[in-house]
Every structure is written in structure tokens, then in C-alpha cells.
Specification:
CATH topology of one domain in chain A: MetI-like fold
Number of strands of chain A: 0
Number of strands of chain B: 0
Largest sheet of chain A: none
Radius of gyration of chain B: 22 Å
Oligomer: heterodimer
Strand content of chain B: under 5%
Largest interface: A-B, 41 and 41 residues
Radius of gyration of chain A: 24 Å
Number of helices of chain A: 13
Structural class of chain B: mainly alpha
Helix content of chain B: over 70%
Number of helices of chain B: 10
Order of helices and strands of chain B: HHHHHHHHHH
Order of helices and strands of chain A: HHHHHHHHHHHHH
Distance between the termini of chain B: 20 Å
CATH class of one domain in chain A: Mainly Alpha
Shape of chain B: globular
Chain lengths: 306, 281
């Protein structure tokens, strides 16, 4: 197990380095002079030159990259071009809404998705299966920005049950998490159904039935347990996408999270913030994938010893 | 044609699934709108009518009117062209380049294969929409750039799938035989191996169109894609957002069009997957 863990960790390091280099290049890929971009159109040539020196743009690109990474490792993500604040300080308060949104979405998506998946597999080819899979395919196809607006119209404007946005109460998270979780719920339902169907075909399920266990026990104690390894992998991977999907949902509901900040920064061309956000989103995604892989290895010895 | 020909079996399996057939009919209807939306629409997509602003759906305007009095049904019909062509072209580009890259790297292996797979790893390190947003942030807003962004993030998924198919198919005896009689590599790849990988390509292609429509519409909704004046579903929804509360139909219908279209492509993909899978009887 130790060896597998070390191998996966070692594989991740070069990926992190390359991804961070790509994100570092981001500000340099934008057409035009980065120093002029930061200084603004009104700045004099001297000011632009001073800024170029300050930003280290005269140094070789690799040295600039090393300086940038050194900064990140000491918690310095640069300063916002718009407000002049430290980017790290701008990002920290944005984590809470995004994380809360991700967990609340995943929570309900998991419960409903698994329930639908199990029912569909057990009643395969009958009406609970058809209804379950129809719900799932609609869930995957829903445009989250539209679902969000329609929920807002119904529950905030017509019924006045829930707030349209903001962070005031826990109620503020209900509609955003329904919106964000719908697609994930559908993925979990579809995947857990096909996994359960595969598992239910196994000989040990037939044995369990033959020895007189009732169907509920066969499903919960034998089939579900064995399907869960694969299902957990999908759930883990979806978690990474959830963090990405929050960009749209936070914009719809004006939630002051990381996703909303990314869109605001793009609108204000605040490139240092965009760069820091891209770095965070990709690192989170890579780390989640690593954790999922390692957990998969822990739960599935076949993978670990390959 | 004999009753057991692969095509007959495919048609029989595909038509057994009513939802997929309905999806196919709906997609054909959409393609008709793409070609001749302006002719079929009851009003012009850019026809202003200041006497009937934000009207609710009625017999005259089945989907109601928007903030400039334009007929929403006509805009949804004409909007099929922009919304679908962007996604279809992006996915087609991704499919072509991803397929060629995947087949070549799977067939030849070695250093180019390793480099390509690492590039895919890097691209898979960003959630789809974040990668698209980053590309649009670099290139600037606009539908052409949305097309490029959606195309780029689609490439690795095709490359991986085709590489996987190539790795398993190239072990076959007929490939070995072709090689031993001196058939050129390009013929082996595209004439002998590619047809075997075609079914996974077509299923992924259909499924990716749904994702592409959603991504392109998301980018337009966030103000990075189509211009607010364009008859494009995402952009229409984005303007409709300002009228939630007063005139929800302005956002409802373009969104419904997106939902139904993505749903149709997903159902078609499901149907094709089952019909092309020899394990499913």
C-alpha cells in the first residue's frame, strides 16, 4: 500500500508543476504587453517600464516562474490589479460559500441519486426503472443557469418561501444546491444503476438468494456494498466538477464564492486574481483526483498490486 | 439485405427504444430550423414592436414577446442556428482532431504517445467549464472564441477514447496479417482499425454535443459568448434574467429549448450506445 501511495504521489508532482506553469503563462498569453495591461491605457511609458521591472517581466521566463511559485509557497498570490489588495486575502473569505455549496449539493445528490440508482437496478425494465432513468437523463440535460432562474421565480417571487440570493441564512443555500446538485444526482443515479446491475449478476448474489436471505438483505448487504467501490470513485470525481460548476450557480444566485469572484475578475480584467483562481481550481481538481485514486486503491486490492 | 445484417440489427435495436426515436425526430426538426429557421418563423427575429413589450404568451405570440417586443418563438426558432452550429462545429472539430491524435498515438506508442497523454492529463486537470472560461479570458469574449474554447476542451476526451480503442484493436490477428503482407500504416489505421472504433466515436460524439451546448450557453449566459442582441439561446436567457419576477417567459422558453435539445442528444446517445453494443440483445 505504501508503495502505491508513493507512486501516485510522485506521478502527481510533475503534473502539478506543468499545470502551474501553464497557469503561470496565462497572463503572458493574453495578446498585448502584460505591463501595459496591468498599468492601464493611461499610464506613461516610464510608469509601464517601472511596473515591468517591479513585476520581474525583464527576467528570463523560467526565473519569473520560479519566483511566482516561491510566492505561492509562502502564501503570496500577488496583488489584485483592481483593488490593490493581496489576492490571498481576497480568496480566503470566498471559500466558505463555495465549500458549503459543494457539500450541500453533494449531500442531497448522493442520497437521491443512490436511491434512484438502486431502485432502477432492482426493478430493471419495469416502470420504477423507466421513471428513475428519465429523471436522471433530464437531470444531466438541465442547464443550471435556467434551473436556478426558474426555481427563483417559483420559490422566491411567486411563493416567497426562499431568498433570491445572498448568504443570510441556511435557506439561501437551498436553491443553489438543488441547481448545482441536479446534474451530479443524475450521474450518480445512472452510474449506481449500471454498477448494481453488474453486481446483481454475480454468483455470490445467487448464492445469497439461494441460502434464503430476503431480497432487502441481498441488496443492502451484498450488492450495494460491492457496487459502492466504483460508485465512490464517480462521486469523488464529480466533486471536482462541482467546484467548477459553482461558477455558474454562484453567478445566478449572487453567492460571494470563488466562482463568482472568477467571473467578476474576468469582467474587470483582474488578471492576477484570474490566474490565482485558475491555479486553485486546477490544484483542487488534481488533489481530489489523487485522493479518489488512493481511496480506490485502498478499497480495491486488485488495483493496488498491479 | 438479409435479416441478420449488422445494419438491420442496429435499426431493430435502435427503434425498440421509443425515447431515442423521438429524440432523433426532434433533432431532425432542429436541423431543419438551423437551415431554414427564418422562413418557418412567424415573425422576424429582430422585428421590434414597441406596442407589445414583454407580453405573456398568447395566440398571437405563442411564447410571448421580449423587452423589445420581439416574438420569442421566432427568436428561439432562428436561434437554433447559432446555438447548434457553434456546438456542432466545436464537437466536430474536437472529434476529428481527437480521433486522429488518439489513433496515431495509440498505434505508434513511444514518446509521442507519452507526450500526448501528459497533455491530456494537463487538460483534464481543469474542470471543463473553468478551462473554457480561461480560454475565453485569453482570447476575449465572442461566439468564435467560445467555439474554439469548447472545441479545445473536447479534444482530450476523444483522444483518450480512440487511443483506448486502438490499443485493444491493434492486438487483433487481422491487423498482424495486414502488417505482415506489407499494408501501409496509414491504411491499417484508417481502413482496418478505425471502423472498429467507430461505434465508441459516434456515441461519444453525440453525448459531447449535449455538453457543448450547455457549455456554450453557460458562457453566453455569463456574458462571454454571443452578444446580448444575438438570437442565441444562452444570450436570450441571459437578458431574460433581468425580467425574472415580471416576465419569466422571456427566460423560460430559450432555457426550455436548451433543455430539450441537450436531452434529445443525450437520449440519442443512449440509444446509439445500446444499439451498437453487441452485448445488449
Amino acid at each position: 500500500m505504501g508503495r502505491y501511495l508513493i507512486k501516485r504521489l510522485l506521478e502527481t508532482i510533475p503534473l502539478l508543476i506543468v499545470v502551474s506553469f501553464v497557469v503561470f503563462l496565462f497572463i503572458r498569453l493574453i495578446p498585448g504587453d502584460p505591463a501595459r495591461l496591468v498599468a492601464g491605457v493611461d499610464a506613461t511609458i516610464e510608469e509601464v517600464e517601472l511596473l515591468r521591472e517591479y513585476m520581474g517581466l525583464n527576467k528570463p521566463i523560467l526565473i519569473q516562474y520560479v519566483d511566482y511559485i516561491k510566492g505561492i509557497l509562502t502564501g503570496d498570490l500577488g496583488t489584485s490589479l483592481k483593488t490593490g489588495d493581496a489576492v490571498a486575502n481576497m480568496l480566503l473569505p470566498r471559500y466558505k460559500p463555495t465549500i458549503l455549496l459543494a457539500f450541500s449539493s453533494m449531500g442531497w445528490a448522493l442520497i437521491i441519486g443512490l436511491t434512484i440508482g438502486i431502485f432502477s437496478a432492482v426493478f430493471r425494465g419495469r416502470w420504477p426503472d423507466y421513471i428513475g432513468m428519465l429523471v436522471a437523463v433530464i437531470g444531466i440535460s438541465l442547464p443550471s443557469f435556467w434551473t436556478g432562474l426558474m426555481l427563483m421565480q417559483l420559490f422566491s417571487v411567486n411563493l416567497r418561501w426562499l431568498p433570491t440570493g445572498g448568504l443570510e441564512t441556511w435557506k439561501s443555500f437551498i436553491m443553489p444546491s438543488i441547481t448545482l446538485g441536479a446534474g451530479i444526482m443524475a450521474m450518480i443515479a445512472r452510474f449506481s444503476r449500471s454498477e448494481m446491475i453488474e453486481t446483481l449478476r454475480n454468483d455470490y448474489i445467487r448464492t445469497a438468494r439461494a441460502k434464503g436471505l430476503n431480497e432487502f438483505e441481498v441488496i443492502t448487504r451484498h450488492a450495494l456494498r460491492n457496487s459502492m467501490v466504483q460508485v465512490m470513485t464517480v462521486i469523488g470525481l464529480q466533486f471536482g466538477f462541482l467546484l467548477g460548476g459553482s461558477v455558474v450557480v454562484e453567478s445566478v444566485f449572487s453567492l460571494p464564492g470563488l466562482g463568482r469572484l472568477l467571473i467578476d475578475s474576468i469582467n474587470f480584467r483582474d488578471y492576477t486574481v484570474i490566474q490565482a483562481e485558475l491555479m486553485i481550481f486546477s490544484f483542487q481538481f488534481i488533489m481530489i483526483n489523487l485522493i479518489v485514486d488512493v481511496l480506490y486503491g485502498v478499497m480495491n486490492p486488485k488495483i493496488r498490486y498491479d | 439485405m438479409n435479416n441478420n445484417s449488422p445494419f438491420r440489427i442496429f435499426v431493430k435495436k435502435f427503434t425498440a427504444r421509443k425515447t431515442s426515436v423521438a429524440a432523433l425526430i426532434y433533432i431532425l426538426f432542429l436541423l431543419m430550423l438551423v437551415l431554414s429557421g427564418e422562413v418557418l418563423a412567424p415573425y422576424g427575429a429582430h422585428e421590434f414592436d414597441y406596442q407589445s413589450l414583454l407580453q405573456l404568451p398568447s395566440a398571437r405570440h405563442l411564447f410571448g414577446t421580449d423587452e423589445f417586443g420581439r416574438d420569442i418563438l421566432s427568436r428561439v426558432m432562428v436561434g437554433a442556428r447559432l446555438s447548434l452550429t457553434v456546438s456542432l462545429s466545436a464537437v466536430t472539430f474536437a472529434a476529428l482532431s481527437g480521433t486522429v491524435l488518439g489513433l496515431l498515438s495509440g498505434y505508434f506508442g513511444g514518446l509521442p504517445d507519452r507526450i500526448m497523454m501528459r497533455i491530456c492529463d494537463v487538460m483534464f486537470s481543469f474542470p471543463d467549464i473553468i478551462l473554457a472560461i480561461a480560454i475565453v479570458a485569453i482570447l476575449g469574449p465572442g461566439l468564435e472564441n467560445v467555439l474554439i474554447a469548447v472545441a479545445i476542451f473536447g479534444i482530450p476526451s476523444f483522444a483518450r477514447i480512440m487511443r483506448g480503442s486502438m490499443l485493444s484493436l491493434k492486438q487483433n490477428l487481422y491487423v498482424e496479417a495486414a502488417r505482415s503482407i506489407g499494408v501501409k500504416n496509414s491504411s491499417i489505421i484508417f481502413k482496418h482499425i478505425f471502423p472498429g472504433a467507430f461505434s465508441s466515436l459516434i456515441v461519444n460524439y453525440t453525448m459531447r454535443i449535449g455538453t457543448a451546448i450547455l457549455s456554450a450557453a453557460s458562457l453566453s449566459f455569463l456574458g462571454m459568448g454571443a452578444k446580448p442582441t444575438d438570437a442565441e439561446w444562452g444570450a436570450m436567457l441571459s437578458t431574460g434574467r433581468d425580467y425574472i419576477g415580471r416576465a419569466p417567459h422571456v427566460a423560460f422558453f430559450p432555457g426550455l429549448a436548451i433543455l430539450l435539445t441537450v436531452l434529445a442528444f443525450n437520449l440519442l446517445g443512449d440509444g446509439l450506445r445500446d444499439a451498437l453494443d453487441p452485448k445488449i440483445k
